[in-house]
Design goal:
It is an enzyme of class 2 (transferase). With 359 residues, the protein is an alpha/beta fold. 48% of the residues lie in helices and 15% in strands. The chain has 14 helices and 10 strands. A 5-stranded parallel sheet has the order 2-1-3-4-5, with helices on both faces. A 5-stranded parallel sheet has the order 7-6-8-9-10, with helices on both faces. Strand 3 (96-102), helix 6 and strand 4 form a beta-alpha-beta unit. Bound molecules: 5-amino-5-deoxy-1-O-phosphono-D-mannitol.
Length: 359
């Protein structure tokens, strides 16, 4: 139940630090090793390529998962929109392993792909928040998100739980395959840092409410920009804002703007620049300058060690690969307040259903 909260979306945003702690409890042993079924690790270890299949926000969590699997565990990983894969599957590798990311476990587009994967006879894993859901029952393996019921149509805590669980799975896989980088990556410690960082951010609601008012009150469109995982995050942030505030929003790779989209920048266009990766920070800042020169109103969201004077939202420092876990929080709050300020039903946006059980 909502308790003291006016809306589920805000409650679910606030629950995220607790979900991170719960995942650490559920998936780590006392001695720091990961608690994941050996049969799952055996199947995963035999794969030569991972295929993550999902829709909407879960697809965006998959984009971050790809970075984790490839950077920490050297396993090639593709991420596919379920409705595209269903009718236009890519060429598969010899030993594919499929990961279905789905909060509800009932999304028809994803289920359609899983049915096909089962016909082909390939192993699969469903990562879901709902035990015994259809995709959980039909996949070879299941991992649960332990995020508690997500009621608001706009997915928030499921996104962060999915990324955290992908990181845990990468860790277990890396240990099983003896991969140095994954073994060194202290996921439990990072997720505890993430939980604390998320708490700092949800405690800054008043500030973000004011920024939403200043930046988004009357605009018809907005952009999120970033590179690497910040680009993945930009796509999720854009979906969140558009689905609850009806502001037309795009998430863009910041270096790609100049290839066309920059034509849309006018005096006062809101652009949110996400900067969490030291390798790409200077490049994103220079893209932000290009839009500022064309009149954009830029909000900078930057990690503490990359922040410069004038940046409005400062993120706690955590490993750049896991930064979407914290950078998403202010973008969820911006979406929530933009919807509130426009007087919309934030928990039940128009034209949308919580779980999309039709193709
Ligand atoms: O239950 P699922 O994770 O499979 O749902 C996928 C999408 O329908 C869902 O993430 C949708 O995009 C949300 N409304 C996003 O907030």
């Amino acid at each position: 139940q909502k308790g003291a909260y006016a809306h589920y979306m805000l409650k679910e945003i606030d629950e995220q630090p607790g979900v991170m702690r719960k995942l650490v409890q559920e998936y780590f042993n006392e001695d720091g090793t990961v608690k994941i079924d050996q049969a799952l690790l055996d199947d995963l270890s035999q794969a030569d390529r991972l295929y993550i299949v999902a829709a909407g926000t879960s697809y965006h969590a998959g984009l971050v998962g790809k970075e984790l699997f490839e950077k920490l565990a050297n396993i090639p990983t593709e991420v596919h929109v379920a409705s595209e894969f269903a009718y236009n599957p890519p060429l598969l590798s010899e030993k594919p392993f499929f990961i279905f990311l789905t909060q509800s476990g009932e999304t028809a587009d994803s289920r359609q792909v899983l049915t096909q994967v089962n016909k082909w006879g390939y192993p699969s894993l469903t990562i879901t928040n709902v035990p015994n859901s259809t995709l959980s029952r039909e996949a070879t393996h299941t991992l649960l998100l332990h995020a508690g019921p997500e009621i608001a149509v706009a997915s928030t805590k499921a996104y962060t739980a999915q990324i955290a669980l992908e990181a845990i799975l990468v860790k277990a896989y890396g240990e099983a395959k003896n991969i140095e980088r994954a073994k060194e990556f202290d996921v439990a410690k990072e997720l505890t840092k993430v939980a604390n960082g998320m708490q700092e951010l949800v405690d800054e609601k008043g500030k973000i409410e004011q920024i939403a008012k200043d930046l988004l009150a009357t605009t018809r469109n907005a952009f999120y920009i970033g590179r690497g995982v910040d680009y993945a995050l930009a796509q999720e942030a854009a979906l969140k804002l558009k689905e609850v505030s009806y502001i037309q929003t795009e998430g863009f790779a910041s270096g790609e703007l100049k290839h066309g989209t920059i034509a849309l920048i006018e005096d006062g266009t809101p652009v949110v620049a996400i900067i969490t990766d030291p390798k790409m920070a200077a490049h994103t800042r220079s893209n932000a300058q290009e839009v500022i020169a064309r009149g954009a109103n830029v909000l900078f969201i930057a990690s503490r060690d990359l922040a410069v004077a004038g940046d409005q939202i400062i993120l706690p420092d955590i490993d750049p690969l896991l930064s979407p876990l914290v950078s998403v929080v202010p973008t969820q709050l911006l979406a929530y307040y933009a919807s509130m300020q426009r007087g919309y039903d934030v928990d039940k946006p128009r034209n949308l259903a919580k779980s999309v059980t039709v193709e």
